[in-house]
Write a structure and sequence with these properties.
Layout (H helix, E strand, L loop, with lengths): L25 E3 L5 E4 L4 E11 L2 E7 L5 E5 L1 E6 L2 E6 L4 H4 L23 E4 L2 H18 L2 E4 L6 H8 L7 E5 L7 H13 L4 E5 L28 H9 L6 H13 L9 H15 L1
Parallel strand pairs: 1-7, 8-9, 8-10, 10-11
Antiparallel strand pairs: 2-3, 2-6, 3-4, 4-5, 6-7
Length: 283
């Protein structure tokens, strides 16, 4: 004999819960799905779902090629079972969501504690561009980007930082080409601090602005600016944008940065270097 240790619930329905009908499941109206509309008995394959008068309508085609339209919802059978026919899930919604850097978005998680390691960049514009494209990835890994305010301060900054295996320094340098001042400094830093905990990489561009593909701002290519003209002012003048003050330069960069939608709008040379720096820190 079974024994109910909690006794009979006098507030429960006299009808057992186990005998209540199960809810009708939802069934996305995917193209090609064969369904029966129970009121008319019409059987056909889904050809499309469309909106009409604010309602979702499913269009069915029977084996003779006849088309009938019905309102989505209950009243359909699939494989002999009642279903609520619903709009199909858009392909974009089913595809993995990606960050601006092209990485698959990670599930939502609590904020991570920042790593001891750092990525250093020469200026604010470098930091803002990296944040726009790689910001989600950096926050997921707990990586902080800091400003150097110029590579001339790099050696002193590294002495103060004191790189260690759990406190690596990954540095992104502008105009890192053979024979440049930046190239010589990078060599000296590598010789002095080694390559285990310090990595200096760079792109070949005069300024990180050039790492944005020129067509994003209506150029076929970035122009060559005379050495007697401050480079950013020359670029803005070439574009026909205001260029006479620091405010003009800030607004010009804001327009350039605003044209960047993701990694595909950047030159591969910059993309590769930033990815290497992230890998160096997280390895």
């Amino acid at each position: 004999m079974s024994f109910d240790r909690y006794g009979h619930d006098i507030l429960s329905s006299t009808t057992s819960r186990s005998h209540r009908p199960a809810p009708t499941p939802d069934q996305p109206a995917e193209r090609g799905l064969v369904v029966e509309e129970v009121t008319t008995g019409f059987v056909g394959a889904v050809t499309r779902v469309e909106k009409s008068g604010g309602l979702h309508i499913v269009v069915l085609e029977d084996r003779h090629g006849k088309l009938r339209s019905f309102r989505l919802g209950p009243g359909f059978w699939v494989d002999g079972k009642a279903v609520n026919l619903t709009a199909p899930v858009a392909a974009a919604a089913r595809a993995p969501q990606r960050t601006a850097s092209g990485s698959v978005s990670a599930p939502t998680h609590p904020a991570r504690v920042a790593l001891g390691s750092r990525i250093w960049v020469e200026g604010r514009h470098d930091a803002e561009l990296i944040e726009k494209v790689w910001g989600d990835d950096l926050r997921y890994e707990g990586i902080v980007v800091e400003l150097l305010d110029g590579i001339d301060n790099l050696e002193q900054a590294l002495h103060e930082f004191d790189p260690q295996p759990d406190r690596k320094a990954a540095i992104l340098v502008d105009h890192l080409v053979a024979g440049s001042k930046e190239y010589r400094i990078a060599q000296q830093i590598t010789q002095k601090f080694g390559s285990d905990n310090v990595l200096v990489l760079g792109h070949p561009y005069v300024d990180v602005w050039q790492a944005v593909k020129p067509h994003r701002i209506g150029l076929d290519q970035w122009p060559t600016i005379d050495r007697s003209v401050e480079w950013k002012e020359g670029i803005l003048a070439h574009l026909g944008w205001p260029h006479e003050s620091q405010t003009d330069i800030a607004q010009g960069w804001k327009r350039i940065l605003g044209s960047v939608r993701g990694y595909a709008d950047l030159e591969p040379t910059l993309i590769g270097r930033v990815e290497e720096l992230i890998d160096f820190i997280t390895a």
